[in-house]
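Lab notebook, bench 4. Continuing the backlog of folding jobs that were queued last week. Each job is logged with the same field layout so the records can be merged later without manual cleanup. Today's entry covers SDR family oxidoreductase, a 254-residue chain. Filled in by technician R.K.

JOB TYPE: sequence-to-structure
TARGET: SDR family oxidoreductase
LENGTH: 254
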Amino acid sequence: MDQSLKNKTAIITGGNSGIGYATAADFLAKGARVLITGRNPGAVQRAVHSLGFPAEGFTADQSSTDDTKKLAEYVRSRYGKVDILFINAGIAKFSGITDVTEEDFDAIMNINFRGAFFTVQQLLPLLNDGGSIVFLSATNAYAGMPGTAVLSASKAAINSLARTLSRELAPRHIRVNTIIGGPIDTPILEKIGVSHDQAGDIRKKMTASIPLGRLGESSEVANLVSFLVSDGARFITGGEYSIDGGLMVHPGIN
Ligand SMILES: NC(=O)c1ccc[n+]([C@@H]2O[C@H](COP(=O)([O-])OP(=O)(O)OC[C@H]3O[C@@H](n4cnc5c(N)ncnc54)[C@H](OP(=O)(O)O)[C@@H]3O)[C@@H](O)[C@H]2O)c1
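JOB STATUS: finished
OUTPUT FIELD FOLLOWS
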């Protein structure tokens, strides 16, 4: 049995569904203690219940610095120090530049980038030297996909932050890596109010552009996160790792 994360403590933001939940399950299977966050107390509790011991939950909105401070305080009192931060919480929202409102702009940037930034800032004093941070970014940061100007910029900012932190935290032997996720089959579209049928159409369209001919699964992203935070990846920092079924090498030329 793979116990590569035995005795490690991990914090996963946005762990009540999708990629964060699958990663929590994988970390637990590999021997880690895991704390997940999310905005909705009921959803966090249900996830903790189905993940089983020793999963724990804490309700915190990543866009709220107050919540992030409370999270850090809880982590300090509950665990003292931690070994792994998986900064995964995020939202997607699509609209062409003429339709983007200031509210949309702020909501996306505040959760996906500002919130990720201050979560790391608050939790960093609790991260052991030799620990590991993984950010969840997206192919949007590079794809130039119409209708994703703000979403893509929020993820590009994450990529930049991760590269800077990889050097800033290297003296503490803290490794910082980024996963560039392609289309993964999670409830992310439904959460922003896209209807089941529309979400199905979007997923069908995405699938058609993926060389491997299918969407990714959350558990496949979880495997990559688990590797990047493990000792097997001890010489890997400042890297970006794509998991997208070949989407970004699709040449568009036949
Ligand atoms: N699915 C994809 O195709 C894809 C591709 C590339 C990158 N990603 C990235 O992967 C990450 C995970 O998304 P997912 O696809 O697994 O979607 P998901 O199932 O919707 O999961 C998102 C998680 O983030 C949490 N979250 C959202 N806003 C939050 C906030 N303000 N504070 C705290 N938690 C918050 C959600 O919890 P609540 O909503 O209950 O608060 C949920 O636990 C996101 O950063 C997303 O951008 C996804």
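OBSERVATION: The two ends are 45 Å apart (CA to CA).
SIGNED: R.K.
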